Every structure is written in C-alpha cells, then in structure tokens.
Amino acid sequence: MAHRAQTILAVHLILRRGDDVLLGLRCGTGWSDGQWHLPAGHVEPGESPLDALAREAKEELGLALDPAAATLVHTMHQHLAGEDPYLHLFFAVHRWHGTPVNAEPHKCADLHWFGLRKLPTPMVPYAAAALAHHRDGIGYSEWAAG
Questions:
Q1: Taking the CB of residue 129, how many other CB atoms lie within 10 A of it?
Q2: CA atoms within 13 A on the CB side of 53
Q3: What integer pLDDT is reported at residue 1 of this predicted model?
Q4: Cis bond leading into 122, ω under 30°?
Q5: Nearest Cα to Cα of residue 20 among 118, 96, 121
Q6: DSSP of 71-100
Q7: Using CA atoms, how far apart are residues 6 and 79, in angstroms rounded to an integer?
Q8: DSSP letter at 21?
Q9: Buried b (16+ CB within 10 A) or exposed e, 20-34
Q10: What is the distance of C-alpha 122 from the center of its chain?
Q11: Where does residue 57 rank: exposed (0-12), middle (13-18), buried (19+ CB within 10 A)?
Q12: How sure is the predictor about 81, in pLDDT bands with cuts at 50, 70 and 90?
C-alpha cells in the first residue's frame, strides 16, 4: 500500500482594523524568530479549526473571539521537500471582545498594526504571500518555497 502524507492543519488569525492587520514579531521559538507573523497555531486533535482559532486568539492576544465572526479568506497548501504538507487556513476577523495584548512575550517581542499594502520586513514569507492573496481576493494558493 502506498504511503499517504499526513497533512498538518494550521489556522492563522487575520485580525482586521479597517485596512490594518495585527502582526507579532516572533522571538524565542527557534522558528522564524525576528520575523513578523500572524497569530497562528496548529489544530489540536479533536479540535475544529474555528475552535483552534478562538483558542489561539485567547492564548496569544488575550481576546475572546466568537468563531461565528471568522471568515475563511484564504487557504494555502504548503509542501516542502522531505516534510509533511501543511494546510494553512487564514481567517479574517473584524469583531472581537477585549483589547489585543502580547499574552506570550516569551514567543512574541512586539505586536503592531500594519496596513495590508504596507507589510513589514522581514515577514514570514508564506504569511506575506497569503495576506497579499487575501488583499487581492484570491482564495487558494500553493507554497513550495523554503
């Protein structure tokens, strides 16, 4: 029997304030430290993507998020040679309860609002691509770059 790839499912929160999006500057994780990224995380066993999104909003930003307020705006399939593929789900949210705070300072050096047309550098490349696709109304993409 052929081996089937085990796809990792990740959710990304595009917290919108008008034309701005909230990004965090990664630190202390060993993955993309020093780069800006969306609040994000893996979907845990037995958890739905929307439940994971609400959990990540609480863990990373201290926000109460109603999953019904989230809209799937982009899906990205990522496959890098020698690694399990990822399916990244990007959800836009315009309404939430609370004020975003850096609830994980050991993983995030800073939070900042950026315009969708003025994203910072350096930024996690696939996240920058997904935000550009979201801005341009493209619902699906594939990512194979490192």
A1: 17
A2: 24
A3: 64
A4: yes
A5: 118
A6: EEEEEEEE--TTS--EEEEEEEE---BS--
A7: 11
A8: E
A9: ebbbbbbbeeeebee
A10: 16
A11: buried
A12: confident
- Residue pointed to by tokens 């959990």: 55
What counts of helices (H) and strands (E) characterise the chain?
2, 8
Q: Which domains does the chain have, with CATH numbers?
A: 11-143 (3.90.79.10)
Q: What is the pLDDT, as a whole number, of residue 87?
A: 97
d(CA 49, CA 47): 7
- pLDDT for 84: 86
Q: Report the C-alpha gap between 96 and 45 in whole angstroms.
A: 25
Of how many residues is the chain composed?
146
Q: Is the pTM of this model over 0.90?
A: yes
